[in-house]
Specification:
By secondary structure, this protein is an alpha/beta fold. The chain is built from 14 helices and 17 strands.
């Protein structure tokens, strides 16, 4: 995959349309994790230092073509202004009067942030002509296109796919770095190679597991998805989350892993509670989960074994928390995995999404890890072997 980088563009004096991923978590209008905004700063700063004017486009949540005040990018514009230490003009629409006026007034060194592009139904439309019409309007704002929103490159959306094809284009620093890391994970990784997967649904990770089985040495399974694995082994899982329809596929994956000599790590103890709440935690054997209990975290013995396996590896990719880390009583497993990754003598990658939010919420800093991805879904689809529309559009 040959994707041109910023050095390939003559940007000085040009107006650049920059597609970022600023899809940060908000609570009551307050940003709770600004990791994705900070990850966009190197590209933004480099472009501004090169003498451009910037039109930044991004999304927030899934408004499905409707204007939803709680999903406005207004708080992101304020935060971005703080981080850049300069004014970011916020357009209250995407292709309307406010955006047109803001872009027309844009001077060299200036920055405009458009409103949530997903407020436009055409952005996510399945009809190509609708996406293309929106892309044409977005492309009219600029001379060049820079794609840096890795968290959206697995979507065939107007601002990600069609707009890039209408202008001279390149990848920003973030996308270039993400692709470089993912290529290291998929092509001749330093061994031993461990993949740690968690999160709620095994169905979201089956493709990744199937594609990586021939590449990894160790596969560790936690999170809600582990109970489908336990059920596939015929174990009692109580009231824990399970995807019955995925059990046959999981059985096939376990057989294939055994044939390939891949070590599958499943928890031997589980932290359970009678309900989905931050109370009454009890540690039980994975072979003896009571019928009236819900598994909400891997147990302490399992956390220690997972950590030991991780620290022996030279390449580690982790996606998905080990338990309900938002509850303090069920965060220990996730914290143990994060701590182990900080001790890896090699490449340790935190695979975006909930994993990235978890490490920060649990007191870790980005600098403690080899790499923290900004796009959990995009990274997983890349590792699954799928073609990502946003990367295809940026190819030479």
């Amino acid at each position: 995959m040959s994707i041109p980088n910023l050095a390939s563009l003559d940007v000085k004096g040009k107006r650049v349309f920059l597609r970022c991923d600023l899809n940060v978590p908000l609570k009551d209008g307050v940003i709770t994790d600004d990791g994705r905004i900070r990850a966009s700063l190197p590209t933004i700063s480099a472009l501004l230092n090169s003498g451009v004017s910037l039109v930044i486009c991004a999304h927030l949540g899934r408004p499905k073509g409707e204007r939803k005040p709680e999903l406005s990018l207004a708080p992101i514009a304020i935060k971005l202004s703080e981080l850049l230490n300069e004014e970011v003009v916020f357009a209250t629409d995407v292709i309307g009067e406010s955006a047109t006026r803001a872009v027309s007034a844009l001077k060299t060194g200036g920055v405009v942030l458009l409103e949530n592009v997903r407020f436009e139904a055409a952005e996510t439309s399945k009809v190509e002509s609708e996406r293309s019409a929106l892309a044409g309007k977005l492309a009219s704002y600029a001379d060049l296109y820079v794609g840096d929103g890795f968290g959206a490159v697995h979507r065939k959306h107007a601002s990600v796919f069609e707009t890039a094809k209408l202008l001279p284009h390149a990848a920003g620093f973030l996308i270039s770095a993400e692709v470089d890391v993912l290529q290291k994970l998929t092509h001749q990784p330093d061994r031993p190679y461990c993949v740690v997967l968690g999160g709620a649904k095994v169905s979201d990770k089956i493709g990744v597991i199937a594609n990586l089985l021939e590449k990894v040495n160790v596969l560790a399974i936690g999170g809600g998805m582990l109970f489908t694995f336990l059920a596939a082994q015929g174990k009692e899982i109580g009231k824990s989350l399970v995807e019955i329809e995925s059990i046959p596929t999981v059985k096939e994956l376990l057989i294939r892993a055994d044939a390939l000599g891949v070590e599958i790590l499943l928890p031997t103890d589980i932290v359970v509670a009678p309900a989905f709440a931050n109370e009454f935690p009890t540690v039980v054997s994975a072979d003896a989960i009571p019928v009236d209990q819900i598994g909400l975290d891997i147990g302490p013995v399992s956390a220690m074994k997972f950590a030991e396996a991780i620290k022996k590896c030279h390449t580690v990719f982790w996606n998905g928390p080990m338990g309900v880390f938002e509850f303090s009583n069920f965060a220990a497993g996730t914290k143990a995995i994060a701590a182990a990754l900080t001790e890896v003598q090699g490449l340790a990658v935190v695979g975006g999404g909930d994993s990235a939010a978890a490490v920060r919420a649990l007191g870790f800093t980005d600098s403690q890890f080899g790499y923290i991805s900004t796009g959990g879904g995009a990274a997983l689809e890349y590792l699954e072997g799928k073609e990502l529309p946003g990367l295809i559009a940026l190819q030479s």
